[in-house]
Hints:
Blueprint: E1 2-9, H1 19-34, E2 40-44, E3 47-51, H2 58-66, E4 71-81, H3 84-93, E5 99-107, H4 116-130, E6 134-136, E7 143-149, E8 154-158, E9 162-163, E10 175-179, H5 185-195, E11 199-206, H6 213-230, E12 234-239, H7 241-250, H8 256-275, E13 279-281, H9 294-301, E14 308-309, H10 317-327, H11 330-333, H12 355-362, H13 367-376, E15 379-382
Parallel strand pairs: 5-6, 5-7, 10-11, 10-13, 11-12, 13-14
Antiparallel strand pairs: 1-3, 1-4, 2-3, 4-8, 4-9, 7-8, 12-15
Helix pairs in contact: 3-4, 5-6, 5-10, 7-8, 8-9, 8-13
The chain binds adenosine-5'-triphosphate and magnesium ion (MG).
Amino acid sequence: MEKVILLRYGEIHLKGLNRGFFEKFLIENIKKAISFSGATIKKIAGRYVVCDFNEENQEQIIEKLQKVFGLHSLSVALKLKTDIDEIKKFCAELVLNNGTFKVVVRRADKRFPIKSMEFAKELGGLILDNNPNLKVDVHTPEVEVKVDIREDGWTYISFQDIMCFGGMPVGTAGKGMLLLSGGIDSPVASFYMAKRGMIINAVHFYSFPYTSLQAKEKVIRLAKKMSEFCGHINLHFISFTKVQEEINRLCDNNYMIILMRRIMMRIAQKLSRKVGANAIITGENLGQVASQTIESITATNAVVSMPVFRPLIGFDKVEIIEVAKKIGTYDISIEPFEDCCTVFLPKKPVTRPKIEDVLEQEKKLDIEKLISQCLESCELIKI
Ligand code: ATP
Ligand code: MG
């Protein structure tokens, strides 16, 4: 009897004529995720089946598949010929731990002659005969024996569903340029956008020597972690030192953050155009800090003409931290290296900037020149 991994997909089910487009990306992403194992993957109606893998790799394969967006859940399953006697024999010999169970039959193959409920009852009876200490519990069983009779002539029997993240396959929803700091929020923002199918490119601004080289190395490690679910990431590093020094030298220091933000956004837009990204992504969150009031967000938004996605806008910090832990970025994010936003920090940052005041401050800077100097410093790292 062959052991396989059965993959179920989520929202793609709802797609009509263009479902093929989404499936093409999904299968490619699945293949990439488990290419290390040499396993093969087959498509059957409504499912994918991972076969020919070495049992030693099973745990690692599952771990990788759980991070492929577009998959709803997966199960390790035993594959039997769809034959009444064979399925019955399997159940009659099944040994389960004591406790409660139920059998669920799913008859996707309508040629199978026995109705699902009826067959489930019969199989349940056989399992009970062999395991007299077991009890049936149809509401909250400890074990659910799933008998999935598919149209390909095979029946897949599994005992546990392992949940994946759902979402849409990466590659199906354009490309986004993430403003990636070394903090907790922006990696989580990338998770949510990749989950909706976006390819993630990223840009990080650093202020060497005010910020250390370790801070940069930390961002690379963050991006590597993110790539477990985002896939390949083009990470751009931009030296921001000159911008900060100029703002500090020429402008009212209380406008430091808002002025920096507006320049970051302009650079992110330029980079986006260059690499074919259609949106900017940030980890901003309403009200979290001075630079994230509605007035500040309005002022930063005003300098770009492409959509800015802020998937965390309505989250509480504790909720963001919970996700960061789940996706494995939290421990890296909390390492204590300074971000460029903490350099030349104003004493009383403006929290409700008026656009005319911001424009007045910007007149003191040669913004175009600063931006082209920043872009010249751009260094690309492929993750
Ligand atoms: P994060 O935890 O993502 O750093 P934060 O709570 O520290 O967010 P801010 O420092 O105000 O908030 O940053 C808001 C957003 O601006 C970040 O989520 C990120 O998208 C962007 N950002 C901040 N600093 C940088 C940087 N050095 N390089 C690139 N983007 C940045
Ligand atoms: Mg930050």
